Predict the 3D structure of the following.
Amino acid sequence: MYAELNIAELHGALEDPALKSMNFLNEVANHYPDAISLAAGRPCEDFFDLEDLHRYLRTFCRYLSEELGYSDELVRRTVFQYGRTKGIIHHLIATNLQMDEGIAVDPESVVVTVGCQEAMFLVLRALRADERDVLLAVSPTYVGLTGAARLADLPVRPVATGTGGIDLDDLVGTIRRERAAGRRPRACYVMPDFANPSGLSMDVPTRRRLLEVARAENILLLEDNPYGLFHGDSDRMCTLKAMDEWRRVVYLGSFAKTALPGARIGFVVADQRVAGTDGLFADQLSKIKSMLTVNTSALAQAVVGGKLLEHHGSLAKANVREREVYARNMRRLLDGLAGRFPNPANGGSPKVTWTGPAGGFFVVVTVPFVVNDELLERSARDYGVLWTPMHHFYDDPGPVRALRLSCSAVSPERIDTALDRLAELINDQLD
Amino acid sequence: MYAELNIAELHGALEDPALKSMNFLNEVANHYPDAISLAAGRPCEDFFDLEDLHRYLRTFCRYLSEELGYSDELVRRTVFQYGRTKGIIHHLIATNLQMDEGIAVDPESVVVTVGCQEAMFLVLRALRADERDVLLAVSPTYVGLTGAARLADLPVRPVATGTGGIDLDDLVGTIRRERAAGRRPRACYVMPDFANPSGLSMDVPTRRRLLEVARAENILLLEDNPYGLFHGDSDRMCTLKAMDEWRRVVYLGSFAKTALPGARIGFVVADQRVAGTDGLFADQLSKIKSMLTVNTSALAQAVVGGKLLEHHGSLAKANVREREVYARNMRRLLDGLAGRFPNPANGGSPKVTWTGPAGGFFVVVTVPFVVNDELLERSARDYGVLWTPMHHFYDDPGPVRALRLSCSAVSPERIDTALDRLAELINDQLD
């Protein structure tokens, strides 16, 4: 007889809404390729140039030979062979963090990963010692975090967003409730800058108090920062890691938005000491990585390394054009929403509201009706516009009356057309 | 206070011998860089050429535009952007399997992974539904398999090697004992061709009977085949997957030895149906992958894809030179052992024996004394030669009197010198 598996006898995560979400959203997008997508959080494609890849690789190899004094044989071995589990561009990443984020780290505390997703999994797998361990996360939460936690068998407890990006009273209350129930809250996942999906940022006093809570309550903070460089016209705020006097912050980094997703290069900074070892948390993550992916592609690291080198370590400099595109698109999206849903003072309806992020990729639109997957499918089919139902970012299966718009990989003209279509859908629903 | 973690409160795998093994072996190698290594199972470095990488990338992009009719924009998007979770070179891999292995697979059953290591983890994570599930593996076992199983919280039960590469009676007995104890044996991991570490291959009748046992006992076989192409002067034997009439075999593939480790590209073929879904096991693995690494680097896939294209899909053709190097080195190693430890018929000692594999990278030498990590460290320091203590490949912590030699990434002259040093060590131990 043919081997046949049964979904009921495979890992429980496979039946989990978090893993199904991604698949469903991709399927809708593939099924309606002509619909304009305000769903995808992909980077802008305007400046992709294949020749850049060749040049980055040559730049990195030249750096190995000219700056580091590698022989030709060693250069070839570095790019072709198995390599250091923690990666080969850790010094360049440390320089980049110093330049762009004001974060001073020991390169030995950096683990280069297969995108930020692997970094999240490594941290969650390490922190899950037994069934008592739980993770906290600001809700709504990036679905990739929830999915990684499911794979690590680590429950996620929601913390309210509040007005400053995280409700610290709810954080403390949740920690204490969990402890009272015999569980161990290990860390809280946060995206302080232009969060996915909310678009919100934490103000500076909240950041300071969050670090203080982490210290007082003895938990880690997992700071994910894929969008910080895209701060529009506003000033950048200091990352938690830059303010992290007590090594409370594990910093998750991604080059998907600042270099290219096709390299799948991310990293984690984990400079915490680990009692019972003579090393850092990064070294423990490296041990897990050695059994998960062995090491991150040297070839892909070389390409990202070359891009870093060409901009003297600064991705802020490398992304001047991209930042302008994102800021322009965000203004267009927000202006477009204001034009189509005028506020009550101007005789408009108070029923449709939206966030007004100063940067990043995402805006959340709140409507007076439930936004489910069926509505998205109808939107794609009958209106020709894609977006993301916000319920995908909540663990709670209750109804959610909001949707996420992304403006990162679409032209201004198509933003206008997409908003026309979205307004038609919303108005039809309101009728 | 500074955050400080405690190893006792991190995932149990981190204290596991399987994860410590890799770290220890790497540390010894790094600590004694002047010692000749017969430890590393790295591919031969003689033919690495940086220009090849550029050409492969161009070849792949030309294929996208000329063969698949992609626009320039779509070519750029394919290489730069996020992409299909199951990968973008699945058709090329299916062609390769047909040409080199006689395996006919639906490209949709292929998931491209971050090396074979991620493929193993995906399969083991999927098969581990609860604490009843166990994995079987021919012992001694590749340490990467054991490590991946630890990360997936999946216990590994050893199956004896026997004379044909796997002791089928022990396999059936182990399956039944596990079932009687209330556990679910899900699969048996095997490396039928030139196994790591034993160097042994399964004969054809054993392969047939193994497939029959898998069917009768309703388990999967995880066939790992990194060395099959390097069959020396012997003929190749048919892979299990090529003989797999009943879809019992999940096939694990690696391009680390046949293309380049620096790309970190592997794959899994999982063409089993999954009840309760309308798809294949590959689709479930893809869902896990989406939360682990999102997708495999398109850039790295493009380079491997280019190499496949340049050799019309055949890595056997692409590796003619490499196969000759490995066959030459294996002869040199076996001749060198015979010269230094003559057999009793010629007045030599029966105390030192070794396997005589027809291909692959590895030879196991059995000695009349315990081979532990302390002896390896002494060998590196005092004799200048590195090898791998065989106890690293057994879950059982008992003493092991054997060591593994690898001849893949060393010149014939250095093989001779290394064997002189090894013989000195062994003779000193025998005195």
Remarks:
- The longest strand of chain A covers residues 184-190.
- Chain A touches chain B through 93 residues (CB under 8 Å).
- Residues 126 and 190 of chain A are 18 Å apart (CA to CA).
